[in-house]
Write a structure and sequence with these properties.
321 residues, mainly alpha, two-stranded antiparallel sheet, single chain
Length: 321
């Protein structure tokens, strides 16, 4: 688990350099996330093209696969051997989609790390500094949300500044409880400015967590994400149906080998279930995570629709030529 966390932290740190570079140019966290999303999608295009080609190739050999399954249904050893030979002859790997899935999972969690702790991974603020401000927030009861301490710091910066300005410099004896508190007069403006990130995006505060906010506007991005995800699913399903219709007719002997129930493709059904499950899972996380994460997922879904439509058109033209 520690090794996995270290790897995700490494990628979050790497992405943080990119996101901060963009932020320093545009000076807006939301806009920086949008540009970051586009850059990530552009970098992933070669992998997406390969994945699309693999999917199309996989659909084309389904009839041959069903023929093998029917022919050797009572001989698992021969079935395994014939399947391997089929993949070899088609220059395909049964695990060809795994690498892409692993990359997507790494991206998902690395971006979550980044958005959860932007001061650590994006602004490169020292842990001792973030711990100090988390302590100040607790001491002064500014916030009760302990899940995202760095988001709390960004959200409560104005209140911390106000407390600092109000604190009187006296030499009078303080109570034991007061002595335990952090002396706000020691805080300098340069340090406070290093913690600032402009989270205001089109009237939305991206430091908000929907389920912990009383502002109804905090739900706008998660709701938009659900709607875009539904559209994305429809695009994927319609594309798969078109690809099936475009498949050349197999010979009658081959068709006669397959029974009606053989039309059921477990791999396709599994992909369909996963496509339906992930948006629900992402929505559940988006409601309890800072809005910056939901914005990234929303952009990712929008870009996925555009990518799918463009790649399908390009690959179709390539096949026709």
């Amino acid at each position: 688990i520690e090794r996995g966390s270290s790897m995700l932290a490494f990628f979050a740190n790497l992405f943080g350099y990119v996101l901060n570079f963009i932020y320093e140019i545009v000076k807006n966290y939301g806009l920086a996330i949008i540009i970051f999303s586009i850059l990530v999608k552009l970098l992933m295009i070669p992998m997406s093209i390969k994945q699309q080609k693999t999917m199309k190739k996989s659909q084309k050999i389904q009839s041959k696969m069903k023929e093998i399954q029917f022919k050797y249904k009572n001989n698992p050893e021969m079935l395994n051997k014939a399947t391997q030979e089929l993949y070899k002859s088609e220059n395909m790997s049964p695990f060809s989609g795994c690498f892409s899935a692993i990359i997507q999972i790494i991206l998902l969690f690395a971006v979550f790390y980044l958005v959860r702790s932007p001061l650590t991974y994006m602004k490169k603020v020292d842990t001792s500094v973030t711990n100090k401000y988390t302590k100040i927030i607790r001491e002064n009861d500014l916030s009760t949300n302990s899940a995202y301490p760095e988001i709390e710091i960004i959200r409560e910066l104005d209140n911390i500044k106000e407390l600092k300005n109000k604190q009187t410099e006296t030499n009078t004896e303080e109570s034991e409880n007061q002595q335990e508190k952090t002396d706000l007069s020691e805080i300098n403006d340069e340090e406070l400015n290093s913690l600032y990130i402009n989270m205001d995006f089109l009237g939305l505060n991206l430091a908000q967590v929907p389920t912990r906010s009383s502002d109804w506007k905090a739900y706008i991005i998660p709701i938009l994400y659900v709607l875009v995800s539904i559209i994305s699913l429809r695009v994927v399903n319609n594309t798969n149906k078109k690809n099936k219709k475009d498949k050349p007719e197999e010979n009658k002997d081959e068709k006669s080998l397959a029974k009606p129930e053989d039309d059921f493709d477990p791999m396709e059904q599994m992909n369909k279930n996963m496509n339906m499950m992930f948006p629900v899972m992402y929505l559940a996380v988006a409601l309890i995570a800072p809005l910056g994460l939901a914005l990234y997922w929303l952009m990712n879904s929008l870009l996925m629709i555009v990518e799918r439509l463009i790649l399908n058109k390009l690959l179709k033209d390539e096949e026709e030529n």
